[in-house]
Amino acid sequence: MQQVLMSNQIFTGTTDTAVPGAILVEGNKISKIASSIEELEPFLKENVSIHDFEDQLVMAGFHDFHLHLFPGALQLQSVDLSETKSAEDVIQVLKRDWDQHKQKEWIIGFGWDNGGWNDAKLPTKELLDAHFPDHPIILNHLECHYCWVNSKALALAGITKDTPNPEFGEIMKDENLEITGILMEKAQSLVQKLAYNFSKEDKLAMLNNFFTYTARHGITSLNDMYAPFSEFLDDFDLLYELEETKQLKARVHLQPKMDGSLEQARLFKEKYNHPKVKMNGLKQFIDGVITGHTAYMLEDYADVSHRGHTTYPLQQLEEWIIEADKEGFSVRLHAIGDGAVKFSLDAFEKARKLNGNQHTRHTIEHIESIQDEDIPRFKELNVIASVQPYHLAALEQKIYVERLGAERFKNTYLCKSFLNAGAMVALGSDFPVVHISPMKEIYHAITRKDNTLVNDWNANEKLSMSETLKAYTYAPAYGCFREENLGTLEEGKLADIIVLNKNLFEIPAQEILQTEVVFTMCDGEVVYELKSTLV
Questions:
Q1: Among 95, 346, 418, 431, whose Cα sits 20 to 30 Å from the Cα of 219?
Q2: Global pTM value
């Protein structure tokens, strides 16, 4: 079947502007690109389907380089706490949505952030117990590095004040050594393994809903990133079931856990090697988050007398990285503190010296804090900078100033600096940590506005629109070794194409947040559309 997509505004990603044109799609590939449909006429058959998008923006599909697939699918059917401004707000939202969720075995919520509350103290189980004593509740903090639970959840998990903390985790206690109801880092798994025990049918329903959601947002490729909070949910064989029934509406690139078990990694790579479900590398956490004082810093935090933590001993992490690189596995490291970032770069540099060039494409995720001397090393070591601009609005700027101090704060959430130094920058959302919407990421990438939408967060790090879109399309394709067939609109490439109802190159920045996807094509198949856009 032939399809033609016409528009006065086509951004191919090979230049910095949008131009008039027409794209001929045959099967799952782009066969021709011309400046007008008249130029395509010699190649058209009788039953061609023509889509005329007039002045709407046609571009390559968004590629979310960093999200958590199964937790994201779960979040879509859980209680949304992202708009709450206090612990009492959380209670009111739970009460409001109670009838919708009370039939479930566990009440699960996502998105609260005490950093933005007037009373920034961490909440306690007693508040949940006062209103919901008989139903187990787990409420994930916005960053998913700690959660808030009630006594019922603690009891079901067998957690008492005598339960030992897991490695790189904490069952928080008050001054009387009583459990508060906050579980930090890997302590969350003590409850998550119970709360996230879903049937295959439940998971398939979640995934169906998730891929409908991604199609609506124009996401045609995504990278699922290992995280401890997804271990009890992940079931990647279900992706093949969806593909068999034509319900897999995006390409999925998998990054399972890096833990030194390369035999498991080899088997995983062999099993998941499909055009739409493919292993892309290995993932591990070096540290935690700045808001929870668990990110690993080179010097003490400004408000506490320690430097944070690493998930595993650094020597062990270095050995895993070198071994993975030696076998050709690209490694992606969650590194938020400047100490974690420096260690990651050092480890990649050592791997290169010991192993030679294995043609790996390593990546550092988040990079919320960095030393000046480490910025050019991304280009020197061919390390991709994976950043998520909407975090500027999801998290509180003042908390970062408090945690880091004014001087270190200057080097938070860099983006333009990496590009200026010649590094490859790839964008993603970190969903369900924040909303999946590419429009939010794009807006904050070009404006650097925090959650006030007025105040800047290191304004000199603003990207241009062209830089931003390329970082959301081509750069992730490069990070997945797929730049030859994805990431730009070019003849011979796979037909992953979207249309936006506004031309992002011409509208005021504020209108980006109201821009919508009106058409999504993945692998030559239309997976989402508004009928009014067709002729």
A1: 418
A2: 0.94
